Amino acid sequence: MELLSAALFGLLLASILPLIFFFAFKDGINSSSPPNPIHSKSINSPSAAALQIPPHSDDDHPDVIVVGAGVAGAALAFTLAKDGRKVHVIERDLTEPDRIVGELLQPGGYLKLIELGLEDSLNGIDAQQVFGYALYKNGSHTRLAYPLEKFDSNVSGRSFHNGRFIQRLREKAAALSNVRMEQGTVTSIVEEDGIVKGVQYKTKNGKELTAYAPLTIVCDGGFSNLRRKLCKPQIDIPSCFVGLVLENCKLPLENHGHVVLADPSPILLYPISSTEVRCLVDIPGQKVPSVANGEMAHYLKTAVAPQLPPEVYPAFIAAIDKGNIKSTTNRSMPAAPQSTPGALLLGDAFNMRHPLTGGGMTVALSDIVVLRDLLRPLSNLNDADVLCNYLESFYTLRKPVASTINTLAGALYKVFCASPDPARKEMREACFDYLSLGGVFSSGPVALLSGLNPRPLSLFCHFFAVAIYGVGRLLIPFPSPKRIWIGVRLITGAAGIIFPIIKDEGVRQMFFPATVPAYYRTPPML
Fold first, then answer.
1. 237-331 has which fold?
2. Is residue 129 within 8 Å of 157, Cβ to Cβ?
3. Do residues 382 and 129 touch, judged by C-beta distance below 8 A?
4. Angle between helices 107-115 and 360-375 in degrees, nearest 10
5. Which residues pair with 157 in a beta bridge?
6. 84 vs 178: CA distance, rounded Å
7. Whole-angstrom Cα distance, residue 291 to residue 277?
8. Measured between alpha carbons, how far is 350 from 366 in angstroms, rounded to an integer?
9. Is this structure's pTM higher than 0.90?
10. CB neighbours of residue 95 within 10 Å
11. What's the short name of a Pfam family annotated to this entry (predicted)?
12. pLDDT digits (tens, 9 = 90+) for 449-464
């Protein structure tokens, strides 16, 4: 029976292997050459008061209300205002955020930033160029470079302090005369006959007001209190990040992110300024050791520190002793919009993925480009039927970038986590060795991860090419029954990782977008 299973398995591999490799290595990367942004060395974040401008008069109603002024909200406000829209931004807290995620912008996201005219938001915040990754496992390491050969020399990833970047984006938006940026807390959405007309909010001084606009776009982040009105949230919390800042630390590979395939889950390191390195320790589950009673410091020193590259060990211990340890939950939520004329979700309020691959800002900026291009033909947003007609394709047009990055983030996290299961161990080993092969074996997956090649089919094929590569390692030189069985479980395990993620993203949306019905009601064609 085992011999029969092995024979059938061999026939299966022989039939699908050519197809997988054809699509996996047929990677088309955008080769447009963007302009060079101008760099500045000063770091000077604007205050919350400086971001707020005098309100419009009562009869000067906005075209768009943007709820939230994080990366997505501030960039969106600037983009729509540049196209001539009057935008009212309502943000709960306009002071500089202090977060431990949202600090790495992939090259694909940087290209979108240039497309939006916002690349100079990275000036003056000591942002660092990132040219790829160093991947570590059990003392071995490999370099994974971004495939940037066809781009201008200035194109790369960027890493920075999240709060500094957000303040720059807010400053850019608030400087436009048709943007009103206000500090306030949105409490509810205003609806009339099933169409969103605006929002109710409480000002900084506690005054309750109502703002009206033909289009309301909610970008209030991963902890949004408005998303339940606009989508069907299915939030998963696979792990937590524990973050430290390593001062005066020199990474083994300069201007690269570093991923350590540690036990039980990955550790990330990347520069966020010329003198600081962010370290993120992933801890599976929703609970982390207590910082207050010293459990966290003990865990980091005894379980995490020995697994780090020796070059960063002293700075890591020093950061623990300094005591500025922060943690955050890592949330994952597929995009599941509800038909809501007059309103739209964007950013982490709408769609989240594990931050392992640093793809969140790339997805958000790509969504803004899609939305801007959809709205451009409309000179007037007040006709709800016409507005719906233009917006109905947003959720489909965003899918190539969003679903590729989302699926890869979820799949890589599961593969990179340690497991006692022999098949999962083999998959982890196979992934590391596959990427270490270089050439298309590394440039293909890295192009997907970086947002330079947003092709779901290419992702699917690369993922199973890794699995088949792992099976080949098991069957050579001698395919014993035990190795054959582990190989079968490796393939089925790989399918068990990626297919649920694809199902959540939507099979039709990812691979057959033309067959997807509109989420909005469909008015007569213009």
1. Alpha-Beta Plaits (3.30.70)
2. yes
3. no
4. 30
5. 130
6. 8
7. 21
8. 14
9. no
10. 14
11. DAO
12. 999 998 999 999 999 9
